[in-house]
Specification:
Length: 648
């Protein structure tokens, strides 16, 4: 973001006060900040009391060996019991947990907490039958169907950490995740519905499993679309055969508070995705408390809807664990946001709390307000945003058009690593500013610092850091403690470096400015420039590649690639660009396909051989190219620009 747009942002002077009734009845009020400041650990201990524990903890936080935190030490609990059984035991078994909406019209299912408990218990028994034991990892590669929630909770019940891989990732990406966490069982479905058609998933699993030697023992397959699938009798098991007939009684074990709950792979600054490890007690405390706090959830009356796919952390924390631990009634939708379909669902189910990403909001803005205006969305009372900075125009449009100018918008900043929301307005307390995520939540300590780790102070920009441990923080990277330390804790002593730039305004409120490392944010999805570069150079015709995230009106950033072809490839032929885009989709997934690929004769490099992506970004964003004096060969940029102007 340029300084110019930044100062425009910071002079944004619209303020939106919380609605009076929301303020009065808010779950969390202003005093929470002081209470948490006075005794952070007591504050989080109180949040943990909202859960059901087997054994209560002896110690709230063990930070004696930073950066390796232990929360609620000595405590035991079961995440699936907290998400399901305890609501049934409290007499809420008939309450709807999931209003599931399939993509095909009229394909819906309402699932109560009692039904969910039975399904989770059956699936836990079925997985046990397949040899899954506490501590074993289970990979999940599924569409947005209720069985994915059941599968996750069944794993949690057994203490078998799951690793959910987004259904849009390729077989190769799935294979590398299965291998990294050594999963012996994969849960998938024949396919899912996307944009009106059945799209297959099982073939990608077959391909991935074939790449992992004899690691995978069983593949458990849900029948969703009914499409034909290849079948390996010695390995593949239908969900309806294994789960439907299993007993609905399952005695859950209480797991240690620090027992691994799941591993979620996310892009980092190198080619290899990082396996973010979350554990049980702290994670469930952090997600359920913030879900109740930030969305002001009233479980008796609210209908909550988070549009995120379960393959990302938002789906884990704010569709599965947080809301279910809170006994919420929620909507789960299988499809993508086609025109009016979302608003039809809001109207049909009288959704009260709605949580989505800026990229979706900007897409709806482009389509025009006539579409949402055609639906009755008066049930809504609170709106949330996550995944990337929300620009003030999108914020105000969201508030006015979707929220009828009465719903507060909570812009929530957090990461796969943080597990829980960290920076956000409190809807009953904070006067929202369009474009700002405002302040660290009670119990969270954030700051903006300069290169020497000094607080920049109000009115200045720098790097966002977190200063104190928090319950849902990642515990390490799966199998790689050293990389965990190097990535997040090595830049400055005792500070967690988030990888985001931020600015404090004159009131001390935080404005997120996007990543300062080689991570891109495309439609709220994290992608690594290095990972896409490695995918490109793995193509036989490519000698070198550089990837940048260029500003894009709808998707926030878009992937732009510059490639040098091998001499043997000649000019690569007419279809080289399409061929390379397909190759990236195969290596990583369709979401990583570059929007633009330019075949260039050279890449701009410093004398030490480092690619100057900043200059490529100037080209991709059609700007005057910046300072080239540190280039080894300053004429390179002219060659690239010539290429650009001759491009179709
Ligand atoms: C970005 C998604 C600005 C940020 C929950 C972060 C945001 C990365 C916001 C994490 C926000 C997320 N405002 N930027 N409200 N929320 N980000 O791991 O760059 O997929 O580091 O977690 O998304 O992405 P991740």
């Amino acid at each position: 973001m340029s300084e110019q747009t930044l100062s425009n942002l910071m002079s944004e002077d619209r303020r939106f006060e919380p609605p009076a009734d929301l303020a009065e009845n808010a779950n969390v009020k202003a005093e929470a900040y002081d209470r948490a400041d006075a005794d952070r650990e007591a504050f989080w201990a109180e949040a943990a009391e909202r859960l059901d524990w087997g054994q209560k903890w002896d110690q709230v936080l063990d930070w004696s060996n930073p950066p390796f935190a232990k929360w609620f030490v000595g405590g035991t609990l079961n995440a699936s019991v907290n998400c399901v059984d305890r609501h049934v035991d409290a007499g809420n078994g008939d309450k709807v947990a999931l209003h599931w909406v399939g993509e095909p019209e009229d394909d819906t299912r309402d699932i109560t907490y009692a039904q969910l408990k039975d399904e989770v218990s059956k699936a836990a028994n079925a997985l046990t039958e397949l040899g899954v034991k506490k501590g074993d990892r289970v990979a999940i590669y599924m569409p947005m169907i209720p069985e994915v929630v059941v599968a996750m909770l069944a794993c949690a019940r057994l203490g078998a950490p799951h690793t959910v891989v987004f259904g849009g990732f390729s077989a190769d990406a799935l294979a590398s995740r299965i291998t990294d966490c050594e999963a012996h069982v994969v849960i998938t479905s024949d396919g899912g519905y996307r944009r009106g058609a059945a799209s297959a998933l099982k073939p990608a699993v077959d391909e991935a499993v074939a790449k992992t030697g004899d690691l995978v023992r069983n593949v458990l397959v849900v029948r969703r679309t009914g499409q034909d699938v290849d079948w390996d009798d010695s390995r593949d098991v239908w969900w309806h055969d294994a789960v439907d007939g299993a007993s609905a009684d399952h005695e859950p074990e209480m797991h240690d508070s620090e027992h691994p709950l799941y591993v979620m792979y996310t892009s980092g600054t190198t080619g290899k995705p990082k396996g973010i490890l979350h554990t049980t007690g702290g994670y469930l405390t952090g997600t359920s408390f913030t879900h109740w706090e930030v969305f002001d959830l009233k479980p008796e009356t609210d209908v909550y809807w988070c549009t995120a796919d379960v393959g990302w952390v938002t789906g884990h924390s704010y569709m599965v664990y947080g809301p279910l631990a809170n006994g919420a009634t929620q909507v789960m939708y299988e499809g993508t946001p086609e025109k009016g379909r979302w608003w039809q669902i809001v109207q049909d189910y009288k959704v009260t709390i709605f949580y989505t990403a800026p990229t979706a909001i900007r897409t709806f803005m482009k389509q025009g307000r006539e579409i949402p205006d055609g639906y009755d969305m008066s049930s809504l009372r609170l709106l949330g945003s996550v995944g990337e900075p929300i620009n003030p125009e999108a914020y105000v449009w969201y508030r006015e058009v979707i929220g009828g100018d009465r719903c507060p918008v909570v812009d929530t900043w957090w990461q796969t690593e943080t597990g829980q929301i960290m920076i956000s307005p409190l809807p009953g307390v904070t006067a929202g500013k369009p474009g700002s995520a405002m302040k660290a939540l009670p119990g969270i300590s954030a700051d903006v610092v300069d290169d020497e780790a000094r607080s920049v102070g109000n009115g200045n920009g720098g790097y966002l850091v977190l200063k104190e441990p928090w319950p849902a923080m990642l515990r390490t990277l799966w199998g790689d403690d050293q990389r965990f330390k190097d990535t997040y804790w090595s830049r400055w002593e005792g500070l967690y470096f988030a990888g985001d730039g931020a600015k404090l305004d004159d009131d001390g409120d935080i404005w997120l400015l996007g990543r300062v490392d080689d991570v891109m944010n495309v439609s709220g999805h994290r992608l690594s420039t290095t990972e896409i570069e490695s995918a490109l150079v793995s193509h036989p015709k490519v000698a070198e590649a550089a990837v940048v995230g260029a500003a894009d009106e709808t998707t926030g950033q878009a992937v732009c690639a510059f490639v040098i072809l091998r001499d043997s490839a000649g000019d690569g032929g007419e279809d080289i660009v399409e061929e390379l885009r397909k190759h990236v989709a195969k290596e990583i997934g369709a979401i990583a396909k570059p929007r633009q690929i330019m075949v260039v004769p050279e890449l701009p490099k410093t004398r030490s051989g480092k690619i100057m992506r900043r200059l490529l970004k100037d080209v991709a964003e059609h700007r005057e190219v910046g300072d080239v004096t540190t280039l080894a060969d300053s004429t390179v940029m002219d060659l690239i620009k010539d290429k650009e102007s001759s491009a179709p």
